[in-house]
């Protein structure tokens, strides 16, 4: 994205008019003067942190004493850097992203004003010690933070103009009073047109978390965030810093993977010593390894990362006899604004609508099994993925799962325009056959590509 303009307001008028209108009209974004930011922060007294573009201070609104965070840009900061961060951050509205409240656009007092997040950041809870010992940090809490952070990144990557964060690390994952994560610091984030990669002449980021391909090529893609998130997962698994002294966590992890179960020796003892956790940690480690692949095309999308972490969390919760909001078996689809209870679909019905999974209903096949087309009793056209149990992770199969996933999973089998943007997934176990069979039943909006039936979907 190219930007033009000689000063900040002209720059925003040309490149971020909607942002400027929201500020000028006090519509969700408030305009602050230099004096306002000085008064709010009591003369910039309470420093919260410092980054490449400026310092962040704690402050309070004078009228209601609401706590705020004010990022004050360094003198000499290029207007483009300030405006880019403002434009990108203003596009994002997600519960796990720090909320932008306003800005100061005076030339020598550039600042952005954000909600204040009270519990520090993930780096603090992972690595800060009291009396030479870490604060307790249970696996379920780590998974909660990882999942919600992944969901925020997935949301950003799936926006009409995708947002690439570019600097994902524990220090940029803030934690609120309930230890809910909030992604922060959009100083080097980029706003893309759909299917566009972002090339930059200056490679900026944090050593240890930066995608090696970004370092080599200067091209930032959503898979760059995936790599960085893989490093964050490693830190959460091991409670070791990504880079420190003579060691590099990622290199040590990759070397341990080559030695098989040696990777287990890297797991944080607090979570590895708890009975039943090792296989779950193995699953997280495998996911992290996929995020860290050198070939970015084979790294998973963030939506898949979030989905797999949720599956692991559900196994943990089942073992502990607990449930989460995701276990209520209640979803919302694009067909209705009302909650819809997930139906129980019998094996007999699935056999009936696919004529016992005959080849003339087969529309696709792949790593996880075959995809069949059929119409349920309620008239709903559906794609049925019959999973091969031998191809699925143990943690993926332990119990029924209800979740959401991107329609691209079936896009090679069905015309993309005929699939819901967000579809619902039902996976249920049907005992009775020699081995347990698992099914994903996906609602679609029309007929599949008829050419696929001619080839059984496998060519």
The rounded Rg comes to 24 Å
Q: Uncertain runs with pLDDT below 50, 5 residues or more?
A: 1-5, 323-343, 391-438, 450-459
Q: From the coordinates shown, what is the CATH architecture of the largest domain?
A: Orthogonal Bundle
Instruction: State the secondary-structure class.
Output: alpha+beta
The number of helices is: 15
CATH topology of the largest domain: Transferase(Phosphotransferase), domain 1
Give the overall average pLDDT: 75
Proportion of beta-strand residues: 15-25%
Percent helix: 25-40%
User: What is the H level of CATH, i.e. the homologous superfamily of the largest domain?
Assistant: Transferase(Phosphotransferase) domain 1
Number of DSSP-assigned strands? 24
Protein name: Protein kinase domain-containing protein
Keywords: ATP-binding, Kinase, Nucleotide-binding, Serine/threonine-protein kinase, Transferase
Pfam families: PK_Tyr_Ser-Thr (PF07714)
InterPro entries: Kinase-like_dom_sf (IPR011009), Prot_kinase_dom (IPR000719), Protein_kinase_ATP_BS (IPR017441), Ser-Thr/Tyr_kinase_cat_dom (IPR001245), Ser/Thr_kinase_AS (IPR008271), WAK-like (IPR045274)
């Amino acid at each position: 994205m190219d930007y033009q303009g000689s000063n900040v307001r002209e720059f925003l008028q040309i490149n971020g008019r909607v942002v400027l209108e929201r500020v000028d009209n006090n519509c969700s974004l408030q305009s602050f003067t230099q004096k306002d930011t000085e008064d709010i922060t009591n003369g910039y007294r309470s420093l919260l942190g410092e980054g490449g573009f400026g310092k962040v201070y704690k402050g309070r609104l004078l009228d209601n004493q609401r706590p705020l965070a004010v990022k004050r840009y360094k003198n000499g900061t290029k207007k483009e850097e300030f405006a880019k961060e403002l434009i990108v951050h203003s596009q994002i509205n997600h519960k796990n992203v720090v909320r932008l409240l306003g800005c100061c656009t005076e030339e020598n007092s550039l600042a952005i004003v954000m909600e204040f997040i009270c519990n520090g950041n993930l780096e603090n809870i992972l690595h800060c010690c009291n009396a030479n010992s870490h604060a307790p940090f249970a696996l379920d809490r780590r998974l909660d933070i990882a999942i919600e952070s992944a969901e925020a990144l997935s949301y950003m990557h799936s926006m009409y103009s995708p947002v690439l964060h570019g600097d994902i690390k524990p220090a940029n994952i803030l934690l609120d009073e309930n230890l809910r994560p909030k992604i922060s610091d959009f100083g080097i984030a980029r706003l893309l047109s759909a299917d566009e990669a972002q090339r930059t002449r200056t490679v900026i980021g944090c050593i240890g978390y930066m995608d090696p391909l970004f370092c080599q090529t200067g091209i930032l893609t959503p898979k760059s965030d995936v790599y960085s998130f893989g490093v964050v997962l490693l830190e959460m698994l091991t409670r070791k810093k990504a880079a420190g002294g003579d060691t590099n966590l990622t290199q040590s992890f990759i070397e341990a993977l080559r030695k098989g179960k040696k990777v287990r020796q890297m797991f944080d003892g607090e979570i590895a010593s708890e009975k039943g956790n090792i296989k779950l940690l193995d699953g997280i480690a495998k996911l992290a390894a996929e995020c860290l692949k050198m070939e970015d095309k084979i790294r998973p999308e963030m939506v898949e990362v979030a989905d797999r972490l949720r599956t692991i969390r559900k196994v943990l919760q089942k073992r502990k006899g607990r449930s989460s909001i995701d276990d209520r078996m209640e979803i919302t689809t694009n067909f209705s604004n009302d909650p819809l209870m997930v139906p129980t679909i019998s094996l007999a019905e699935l056999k009936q609508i696919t004529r016992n999974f005959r080849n003339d209903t087969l529309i696709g096949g792949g790593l996880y099994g075959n995809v069949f087309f059929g119409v349920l009793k309620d008239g709903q056209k559906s794609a049925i993925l019959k999973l091969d149990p031998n191809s699925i992770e143990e943690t993926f199969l332990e119990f029924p799962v209800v979740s959401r996933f991107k329609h691209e999973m079936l896009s090679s089998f069905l015309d993309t325009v005929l699939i819901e943007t967000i579809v619902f997934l039902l996976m249920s176990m049907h005992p009775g056959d020699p081995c347990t069979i698992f099914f994903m039943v996906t609602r679609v909006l029309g007929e599949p590509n008829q050419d696929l039936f001619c080839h059984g979907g496998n060519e």
